[in-house]
């Protein structure tokens, strides 16, 4: 799959995510799920390698991967980054309480923050969960106190420092997993 760029998505994200009617997901069979797991572990895996590992022809693997992309199940192919080695040694989850009905406005402002890695509208004691990676705690502090708290729709924040992370995909034991990663037997 080397050289395959991100799949086109509907405006605002994945198909059915925002705006327009919800998209009914097509049922995925065990082969589709295996293909997804393999591509999550190695997005650069060749069609041939994927086909061999899931025991289908190359044409079948190619068609399935294209269908998963066309259906918006696979949104693209990315690199998993070791943030500490990339000079982003401080990570935090930040919870935000926001003004009611301001999600879209806040989301657009959070997207512009340096180091913002994941944004989620959630239920519970707070409204938004934000994951950020910054070079150090001083930069993190400035991000929270200067940038986040200056957004008028943000009522309050709480910062949870990340001391250690475990990427479940690195071990090949991702969701629905238990299967070995590439190269393992």
Can you tell me about this structure?
The chain is α+β, with helices and mostly antiparallel strands and 185 residues long. The chain is built from five helices and four strands; from the N terminus they run αααβαββαβ. Strand 2 (116-121) and strand 3 form a beta hairpin. Helix 2 crosses helix 3. The longest helix has 13 residues, at 58-70.
Short characterization:
This protein has helices at 30-41, 47-54, 58-70, 103-111, 137-148, and strands spanning 90-98, 116-121, 128-134, 154-162.
Main pleated sheet: 4 strands, antiparallel
As a percent range, the share of strand residues is: 15-25%
Helix and strand pattern: HHHEHEEHE
Molecular shape: elongated
Mean pLDDT: 83
Helix content: 25-40%
Structural class: alpha+beta
Number of beta strands: 4
Radius of gyration: 19 Å
Strand arrangement in the largest pleated sheet: 2-3-1-4
Number of continuous helical runs: 5
Distance between the termini: 22 Å
Low-confidence spans: pLDDT under 50, at least 5 residues? 1-18, 172-185
Features:
4 strands; 185 residues; alpha+beta; 5 helices; disordered C terminus; 4-stranded antiparallel sheet; disordered N terminus; elongated
Topology readout:
Blueprint lengths: L29 H12 L5 H8 L3 H13 L19 E9 L4 H9 L4 E6 L6 E7 L2 H12 L5 E9 L23
Antiparallel strand pairs: 1-3, 1-4, 2-3
Helix pairs in contact: 2-3
């Amino acid at each position: 799959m080397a050289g395959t760029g991100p799949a086109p998505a509907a405006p605002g994200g994945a198909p059915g995510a925002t705006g327009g009617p919800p998209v009914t997901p097509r049922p995925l069979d065990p082969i589709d799920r295996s293909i997804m797991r393999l591509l999550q572990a190695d997005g650069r895996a060749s069609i041939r390698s994927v086909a061999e590992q899931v025991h289908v022809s190359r044409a079948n693997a190619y068609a399935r991967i294209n269908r998963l992309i066309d259906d918006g199940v696979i949104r693209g192919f990315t690199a998993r980054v070791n943030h500490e080695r990339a000079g982003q040694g401080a990570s935090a989850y930040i919870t935000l309480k926001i003004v009611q009905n301001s999600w879209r406005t806040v989301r657009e402002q959070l997207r512009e923050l340096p180091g913002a890695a994941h944004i989620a509208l959630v239920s519970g004691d707070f409204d938004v969960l934000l994951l950020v990676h910054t070079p150090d705690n001083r930069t993190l502090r400035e991000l929270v106190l200067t940038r986040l708290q200056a957004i008028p729709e943000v009522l309050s924040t709480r910062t949870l420092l990340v001391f250690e992370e475990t990427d479940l995909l690195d071990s090949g034991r991702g969701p629905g997993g238990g299967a070995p990663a590439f190269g393992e037997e």
